[in-house]
Amino acid sequence: MIVEYERTMSIKLHSDIASVRLSADDISSRVAELAQQLSRDYAGKDVVLVGVLTGSAIFIADLVRAMSIPVSFDFLAVGSYGPDAKISGVVKILKDLDSPVESRHVVLVEDVLNPAMARRAEYLAEVMRARRVASVRICTLLDKPDARTKAGVTVTPDYCGFTLDEAYVVGYGLDYLGNYRALPYIGVLKPEVYGGG
Prior knowledge:
Layout: E1 2-5, E2 9-12, E3 17-22, H1 24-41, E4 47-53, H2 57-66, E5 72-81, E6 87-95, E7 105-113, H3 115-130, E8 135-143, H4 145-150, E9 159-163, E10 169-170, E11 186-189, H5 191-194
Parallel strand pairs: 4-5, 4-7, 7-8, 8-9
Antiparallel strand pairs: 1-2, 3-11, 5-6, 10-11
Helix pairs in contact: 1-2
């Protein structure tokens, strides 16, 4: 199915996607704005962007390429989901950083801050503080503040691409059971795919 979009752009829609929420152009423009903001805020500072795998990989790659200051990046892999995509309640570092971060300014980069990911980001921020970083902030592509508030999670991002509260969105790194990450847009997943309908 082809969905005609504004700016005379057409998007080939995956059969499991109900609708496109954010086009590739929407995402690209906002990532460029975030990169400019980060470049201003960290000008003259030793900053490292730390992506939380796997969801943030596409986002952080585009982000660092759009920044106008010297920046390095690294990745953490964290386990917090079981094989059926239910929250396990346990956060553990599966892959640690390759380089030390002491005295550096760390920006944790997440794909989405829903209640579980916000708790995970809070835990990782504490881990970074224990490593004596100069500062730690959180940057997320998507924020789900209503869901976080309902769950009693108080962590908020310092940098946010978009605020979305749709039940399940995928694409541009966001997945469902490992699928849909490579979609160039962010789309609403059909409820019947994840058992929500």
